[in-house]
Specification:
This protein is mostly helical. The longest helix has about 30 residues, at about 240-270. It has 14 helices and no strands. The two termini are about 35 Å apart. The radius of gyration is 19 Å and the shape is globular. About 70% of the residues lie in helices and about 0% in strands. It has one domain. Helix 6 packs across helix 13 (about 240-270) and helix 8 runs parallel beside helix 13. Residues about 75-85 have low confidence and may be disordered.
């Protein structure tokens, strides 16, 4: 069956909302707002964040999350055929699990007590909880979690929604990042299909599976920025465990929102075709950037 040719007005409006968030995400402002501090107070702490600690912890967390994505995310059959009513598109993926929120709030406690030093304890657990939440959103949008490539798509959400690179002009940061990871996801899925969980982790640790290492590196390059922003907010003196827990909930909410837009765009691509959907999205990017 050939895809429909024209997006509805409401679907175009939804793409405009997606472009507004994915191209200029407000994570740092959301984190600052969550703790009730001016953005400038958070940004002033940038020099106190340890880049080496962030990079090594992010790589470790993503490695374990990759193993989780491939082997232990709950499998699900494809959902019902894509619906066309705008109300359903806007409602999908908005019911974040109470348990996901509670879990990330609890994992924020080490950050409140130990600050940056608590990152190696907190981030792997937080990333795992967020990945499960992302997977539930993917399933709501009709993705088949029985497909290894789809499960790796859940992992790529951590690589979206970062600040736009310098000199990106009118190009879409989201689409550029997504296309840049497309081949890496495909190659990683092939490798992962032939290995056990432990073998997968060993190959990543030893660097003997370039496809897996390459995918993690591509995601980490963007996820590092988000984690650094979180640490900047978390490093304010006497932030306290309760406020750190609030930060983690805001962190989860950010990536849930990125996931909703990512898998919503993929859903529209299944309905209208990738070319038409991405052209409509790029048009909204140009409008948002004033072109």
């Amino acid at each position: 069956m050939q895809p429909d040719q024209t997006l509805s007005r409401d679907e175009v409006q939804w793409l405009a909302e997606a472009a507004a968030y994915l191209e200029r995400p407000s994570l740092l402002m959301r984190l600052a707002g969550a703790i009730g501090r001016p953005l400038e107070a958070v940004v002033s702490l940038v020099d106190k964040v340890a880049p080496d600690l962030v990079a090594s912890t992010v790589t470790s967390a993503l490695s374990r999350a990759l193993a989780l994505a491939v082997y232990t995310l709950p499998e699900a059959a494809k959902a019902e055929p894509v619906v066309s009513t705008p109300e359903q598109l806007h409602q999908l993926g908005t019911s974040t699990s109470f348990w996901h929120n509670l879990s990330v709030a609890m994992t924020g406690l080490p950050g409140g007590f130990f600050g940056i030093a608590g990152l190696p304890v907190e981030l792997p657990v937080t990333t795992t909880v967020m990945l499960r939440s992302i997977a539930s959103i993917a399933r709501e949008f009709g993705e088949d979690l029985g497909d290894a490539e789809v499960r790796l798509q859940c992992l790529t959400v951590f690589g979206f929604g970062g600040p736009p690179p310098q000199g990106d002009g009118l190009e879409s940061t989201y689409l550029t990042t997504r296309i840049g990871m497309q081949e890496a996801v495909a190659q990683a899925a092939k490798v992962a299909a032939r290995a056990t969980t432990q073998e997968l982790l060993d190959m990543i640790h030893r660097g003997t599976a370039p496809a897996l290492v390459n995918l993690i590196a591509k995601i980490a390059a963007r996820f590092n920025l988000a984690v650094t922003e979180k640490l900047m907010a978390q490093s304010i003196p006497v932030i306290g465990a309760v406020t750190a827990a609030t930060l983690n909930v805001a962190f989860l909410d950010h990536f849930n929102r990125v996931a909703r837009y990512h898998f919503g765009i993929r859903r529209l691509e299944r309905k209208y075709g990738a070319e038409a959907t991405q052209a409509a999205y790029r048009q909204q990017v140009r409008i948002a950037k004033g072109s």
